[in-house]
Amino acid sequence: MIDKLRLNAKLIGFDGIIGRWDFCLNFVYLCMIGMLFSIPATGYIVCNMETLSEFFIFNTILWEAPWLLKLWFFPGSAFVLYIAVSLIIRRLNDINGEVNWNTNTIISVLYVFSCLGLFFPIGISVLLYSINLIIFLYLLIAKGKITGKYPHDYRKEFNWGAFFGTWIWGLFNKSYKTLWMLILWLTPWGFWYSVVCGFKGNEWAAKNRDWQSLEEFKRSQEVQTIVFVVLTVIIIPILYFLIVAAIIGAIVFTAIDEAKTSPNKTPATIEKLENAVHKLSSSYFESYEITPDENKFYILPSDWMRYSYSDKKNLLDIASSISASERGKASKDERYSKDSELERTKIYNVKNGELLGEYYLDEQMLSSDNTDIKTIIKASLNAYRFYNPKK
């Protein structure tokens, strides 16, 4: 039994125990691995959503995905759950101070089942994800009967300087593993790797530099933490704001000067600017036609398939804005806006004319006396409707 309760901080393993610190660090690694398998599937789901409400029941879209994508996602997810269960079992061994297979099995099965919330309706999903969160918080907060008696290790303290400074902090402390951040910050893994740097910062710094005493080490890391927190949280945002404000100010003052020096040319200049913006916006479409009853915009199906749900929504909004501008030019007496044109703006397949995108809000249903908040939310989520080319 003593051998079965040995310290085992590896990523994968069912025997032994694992403390809270190593448990959290390994879960960060697990999140990074999980993203490797989930990002392609998430991208496919977002690109194939027809209404926003399908985001909450996207298992139907996932089942229709190409077999190669499913072959990557489902075995990968099973592998991630396998690692998670191994971490949970070792953490429970530490919390209980013994190997209790009944408790381990019940909690592990409950956790795995709670991770399958995406395959259930929204109400059940919320319940399952709540159970998942409760289990994780329990494993995180509960003190281990075994590791709780270990002496404090300063190397297992979160280093905020390493978290905020990442690769710059790494150069000061000869921790060159942090240089991976130069590549990863451009990817979804950037944040998680900065968390890894925070977890491993003290360990790396203590190993890679010669310190005269523990006090010198802690004092150095405290100073670096202050420097990088101030730099990242205060100085860089202020500089960014000042640069943006300076650019906007320069544009505004230039426009004012031009208006003062040549007031007669200002309307023409504004019109040219509007035409340039209009031309840039309409470049997303192959052509468009503004009729009294409908605004028809045509797009290549290959381009449409590449866009995410958010991109398609933006395209429909852009088309509505173009329509409002065109109608405003044709009629000086009436005012048009994106919102007024949204419902009669539609996007079509340029090759065969099939409908690809529209906005339809069932106002009759919303005006009913029996309308409840659930109906309103559902109608709003289904208002933007996008379809994949069928032919």
Summarize this entry quickly:
The chain is mainly alpha-helical and 391 residues long. It has helices spanning 20-47, 59-63, 67-96, 101-114, 122-141, 160-172, 181-184, 190-208, 214-261, 266-282, 301-306, 309-330, 338-342, 363-366, 373-381, and strands at residues 287-290, 295-299, 345-349, 355-359, 384-386.
Lay out the secondary structure.
Elements: H1 20-47, H2 59-63, H3 67-96, H4 101-114, H5 122-141, H6 160-172, H7 181-184, H8 190-208, H9 214-261, H10 266-282, E1 287-290, E2 295-299, H11 301-306, H12 309-330, H13 338-342, E3 345-349, E4 355-359, H14 363-366, H15 373-381, E5 384-386
Parallel strand pairs: 2-3
Antiparallel strand pairs: 1-2, 3-4, 4-5
